[in-house]
Amino acid sequence: MEYKKGLFITFEGIDGCGKTTQIELLNKYLQEKNYKTVVTLEPGGCEIGKNLRQILLFHKGFVSDVAEMFLYLADRAQHFEEIITKNINEGKIVLCDRCIDSTVAYQGYGRNGDIEQINLLNHIATKGKKPYLTIVFDIDIETAQKRVGSTKDRMEKENLEFHQRVRQGYLELAKKYPTRIKVINANQKIEEVFSDLEKIIKEIL
Ligand code: TMP
């Protein structure tokens, strides 16, 4: 969209949707075709972000909703400045596990935060840059919960209603931005999910 060189693709979905596996498969697929890729994630794609991830996912005490939102945004601001923009400008395909839509889905829909405010804060954190393509891996809550297992981080410990609101948020975002955001049914087998992903990727390469 706004990038002359490189490509920025983000991957989204509720916890346990299987996006990390799909990113790995896609990275391998692109490298076999000789594309230069960078795989990164939010939160935690840069040094400061790794510390923030630790707080965000494993802090034991109370974390206010607003503090949580700003910590995700701080991670994003640093990540864009340090990793994302630089690699896109070097002509690489940047595959990012979560980005702006996670904050809208989790802190907006999940925590009932103000979505307009989050959009503005995302705009500030990214200096207005947006993913060229975003894949949402949509999955039913029960299947996702099974995949997460019993060792849960601070966000995964949220109740089913929270995760349902997050899922709904992603689906609404996909309706709102149909050109950028594509939804894949992640209830399917890994190979079937990847086959859907490959079709979408082939169209943009
Ligand atoms: P993950 O890297 O294992 O997907 O975990 C990151 C967790 O943080 C996940 O539960 C989603 C959550 N998250 C937010 O709530 N807001 C955000 O902006 C981002 C990037 C992640």
Strand-helix topology:
Blueprint: E1 7-12, H1 19-32, E2 37-41, H2 47-58, H3 65-89, E3 93-97, H4 100-110, H5 115-126, E4 133-138, H6 141-148, H7 160-176, E5 181-185, H8 190-204
Parallel strand pairs: 1-3, 1-4, 2-3, 4-5
Bound molecules: thymidine-5'-phosphate (TMP).
Question: How would you summarize this macromolecular structure in one to three sentences?
Answer:
Helix content is 56%, strand content 13%. It has eight helices and five strands; from the N terminus they run βαβααβααβααβα. Residues 15, 41-43, 72, 97-98, 102-103, 106-107, 155-156 line the site of thymidine-5'-phosphate.
List its salient traits.
205 residues; alpha/beta; Rossmann fold; 5-stranded parallel sheet; 8 helices; 56% helix; 13% strand; binds thymidine-5'-phosphate
Please give a structural write-up.
By secondary structure, the chain is α/β, with parallel strands linked by helices. It has one domain (7-204): 3-Layer(aba) Sandwich (Rossmann fold), CATH 3.40.50.300. The chain is built from eight helices and five strands; from the N terminus they run E-H-E-H-H-E-H-H-E-H-H-E-H. The longest helix is centred in the middle third of the chain and has 25 residues, at 65-89.
Radius of gyration: 16 Å
Count of structural domains = 1
Percent helix range: 55-70%
State the major sheet: 5 strands, parallel
Ends distance: 13 Å
The proportion of strand residues reads: 5-15%
